[in-house]
Design brief:
Blueprint: E1 3-13, E2 16-20, E3 25-30, H1 32-36, E4 46-51, E5 57-62, E6 68-69, E7 74-75, E8 79-85, H2 93-105, E9 109-115, H3 123-138, E10 142-144, H4 147-157, E11 163-167, H5 174-181, E12 207-211, E13 214-218, H6 240-246, H7 263-269, H8 275-290
Parallel strand pairs: 3-5, 8-9, 8-11, 9-10, 11-13
Antiparallel strand pairs: 1-2, 1-4, 2-3, 4-5, 6-7, 12-13
């Protein structure tokens, strides 16, 4: 009788699926039923595999998913480690807010890590970035400025069987960070294009790496974020401080534009909400309503 086991898909290799079970990694093929049902297992999926009498392994069932994010996709993402560079590419609150809004929409928690801070020679410039990030701490995000501190904290932060994935603009240092956190990951890295101030994509496939009691993924799927599926009327709710303040707005459906007695606008005027957050909110509204990509992403 064929044996069945459950595990997590940790990699896709030329039509094969590598599944981490409690005891080992098993290379499997997916049954034809998935193709017939237009289903495709993704890295991160909890799956059931079956080993037949000849010792051949087959992926036979995808267990219920928490989510499926990105392209190529990662399933069951519980947390995002968002890598934002201080320089090369330059620090950008527009990109930071874009990522945070997208993952808030996906209902995935985010921890922020500032990379390449050691490359900033101007201490005033670094202090300005750190002051900006202190605002994000105040509204509830965990922010790390030091990879050693992040490494130590991950032991407690990354819970059993959780899947964390790296995200951030190309060239921000995601693969470099992964190599630091997971010495045997051996992810390739590439130099920055000085002409474009952008990084080159070095990650081509999605793969999960075991880390502490869970997994960490490096993926090319989270370097560019599409906000077009977000409903315009829901956008404000994905800005955490806007959502909290909105309960005190006069109108329940307040979009924080020109409505009277808007609590978000009041806090903005009193500088309790950072001006760039509101400006980026307006820019995202324009992008979603007009269906256009912002210039800095083209």
């Amino acid at each position: 009788m064929a044996e069945k086991e459950t595990g997590t898909v940790i990699a896709l290799n030329a039509g094969f699926y590598d599944v981490q079970t409690d005891s080992e990694v098993i290379r499997t093929r997916a049954r034809g039923v998935f193709r017939q049902n237009k289903q495709k297992p993704a890295v991160g999926d909890r799956v059931e595999i079956q080993v037949d009498e000849k010792g051949m392994s087959y992926l036979v069932k995808i267990l219920p998913r928490l989510n499926r994010i990105g392209r190529p996709a990662v399933a069951n993402v519980s947390h995002v480690l968002l890598v934002i560079s201080a320089v090369e590419p330059d620090f950008s609150v527009a990109l930071l807010d874009r990522f945070l809004t997208f993952f808030s929409w996906q209902r995935v928690k985010v921890t922020i890590y500032l990379s390449k801070a050691d490359l900033i020679a101007n201490t005033a410039q670094l202090k300005e970035i750190e002051q900006t990030l202190s605002y994000y701490r105040e509204i509830g995000y965990q922010v790390f400025l030091d990879k050693n501190e992040l490494d130590k904290s991950l032991t407690d932060l990354l819970e059993a069987d959780q899947i964390w994935t790296l995200a951030g603009q190309s060239g921000a240092g995601k693969s470099t960070l992964l190599n630091y956190l997971k010495a045997d990951a051996n992810q390739s890295t590439a130099a920055i294009s000085s002409a474009l101030n952008r990084g080159r994509h070095t990650t081509r496939v999605v793969q999960l790496f075991s880390l502490n009691k869970g997994f960490l993924a490096d993926t090319p799927g989270f370097s560019a974020i599409d906000l077009s599926p977000i409903k315009l009327t829901d956008l404000a709710s994905y800005f955490v401080e806007f959502k909290e303040a909105s309960q005190f707005c006069k109108f329940r459906s307040c979009q924080h534009l020109k409505e009277p007695k808007c609590e978000v606008k009041r806090l903005l005027e009193e500088k309790q909400i950072m001006a760039s957050r509101y400006e980026n909110y307006l820019a995202m509204r324009a992008e979603i309503s007009e269906g256009r990509m912002p210039e800095y992403l083209k």
